[in-house]
Amino acid sequence: MLLGTGVATATTPGWTMNVTLIPGTVSPGAYAAYRITITNNGKSNISKLFLTDSITDHPYSVISSTGCNATGPLYCSLGALNSGASVTRTVVYKTPSTGTSFPISFDSNTSGSTFSDKGGTSHGDTLFTNVSTVLDGSGNFAGGYVVDPNNPFSTGGGDNQQTTLDPPVGGIGVTISEGGTSNPCGTTNVIGQFTAINVGDGAVYTAPFETIFTIPTTSLPNELQLSQVKLCHQYDNGTAVQLPRCAADAAPTNGVACFWPKFVGPTHPDREEHPGEVDADDFTWLVLDSWDFQNGGYRGGWG
Fold first, then answer.
1. Can you tell me the distance from the alpha carbon of 158 to that of 112, in angstroms, rounded to the nearest whole number?
2. CA angle, 243 as apex, 242 and 245 as ends, to 5°?
3. Which of 28, 54, 55, 71 has its CA 20 to 30 A from that of 287?
4. How many CB atoms lie within 10 A of CB 226?
5. What is the rounded distance in angstroms from the CA atom of residue 202 to the CA atom of residue 219?
6. Sequence-separated (6 or more) residues with CB below 8 Å from residue 188
């Protein structure tokens, strides 16, 4: 399950510039990354290679930044690129806080002895690649490029659910997308929405990442108890599993994905006059706290 990653490629006889968007859709104001790979497929070497962009008013940083300036606008002097060789740089921008898209044009140009389709020389050859990251500000979406893994991504809490993802590491793209009718638990009774979590385009992590699903108890049966609650994970290959309960409300130490349900919020003890029972209507929120190691979709259920 990809992150909506877009790829754009510019070609001219003998060389190409490929730009991958990480991810292809982000929340307005979030970071977006672009992995730029320039390949010399020609018969001759490129003696000097440069990379610039069309953005002047948005902060950026450069990863793998040898030859690139530290502050905008982007300017990379990449040196020689021999026949058959490639060079890659990843640049990260903070997107606008409003709007529906964030377009950028990347410009790679050369000087000195380079390719041509007949193996000759060329001066000032240029490749332009236009890309555009989608900005999705809806309440059921959250995403961006992880610069600081200590900053979680949260949806807006629309449609009776809020999902919060605490990313595992920096330098990856993540998205949360709520909605859909999938029911990985296969139960007659479902909780909240089906939520697709995409972390690093399918990477499997050695340390678990935490996802928190918060559902108002007004959308649940009054007498629902925690012992009845399930959370299921549908992996990218379509396989669905019911997650076991964690040993405690904390990340697992045994390498097995798990979840922990709890009721939170202002309490109304035994409002339904069932002494000793802890029911959904005694609290404001049902929280499903899960720890997993890879992508997939989630939805709760009971029964």
1. 56
2. 130
3. 28
4. 15
5. 32
6. 303
Residues 6+ apart with CB under 8 A from 179: 140, 159, 193, 194
Q: Are 213 and 161 in contact (CB under 8 A)?
A: yes
Same fold, 7-135 and 141-302: no
On whether the CB atoms of residues 81 and 51 are closer than 8 A, the answer is no
Token readout for 95 is: 């997107």
CATH code assigned to 7-135: 2.60.40.1530
Residue ranges per domain, the chain? 7-135, 141-302
Across 159-191, b (16+ Cβ under 10 Å) vs e yields eebbbbbbbbeeebbbbbbbeeebbbbebeebb
Q: Considering only the top CATH level, what class is 141-302?
A: mainly beta
CA-CA distance, 109 to 49, in Å (whole number)?
6
Tell me the pLDDT band of 266, cut-offs 50, 70 and 90.
confident
Q: Which residue has the tokens 């292809």?
A: 24
* pLDDT of residue 276 exceeding 60: no
Among positive and negative, which fits the CA dihedral 205, 62, 50, 56?
A: positive
Distance (Å, rounded) from C-alpha 258 to C-alpha 249? 10
37-48: pLDDT as tens digits: 999 988 888 888
d(CA 11, CA 39): 10
Q: What average pLDDT is seen over the chain?
A: 85
Q: What's the pLDDT tens digit per position in 20-32?
A: 999 999 999 999 9
